[in-house]
Amino acid sequence: MTTTAERIVAVNAAAWDYWRWHATQSGEWVTGYLASRGLRGTVAGQAPAGWARLVPTLRRRGFTDTELLDAGLALEAKNGGVGDAFRDRLVLPLRDTSDRIIGFTARRNPATDDDPDAPPKYLNTTSTPA
To answer: Model's pTM, two decimal places?
Structure first.
């Protein structure tokens, strides 16, 4: 069964709340990075590092793995496990004309910019029904 656009908007809002909270915690790097780029005052979230930080949090809030996968917030591993698609990234919401969050764009932590094995610099939500 395909996840509805309304449910994807709901899971995106929950992910945004989680990432915004992380951006206010001690040790976050997003605020300093935005300031260094002349973007003080930009509201951004921070996806924490690690394979499964967002996924278990949203499961506890009543979202299913299928909904997380359909929203582009999770990835399925070869072993069948489900983990976060956005890890150690500055996250910005993509909104529709009604101000609903329909997806995200994200930049990896700049501390990894010199690492040849680093993941892609920018990552966007996959295409979804939202």
So the answer is: 0.93
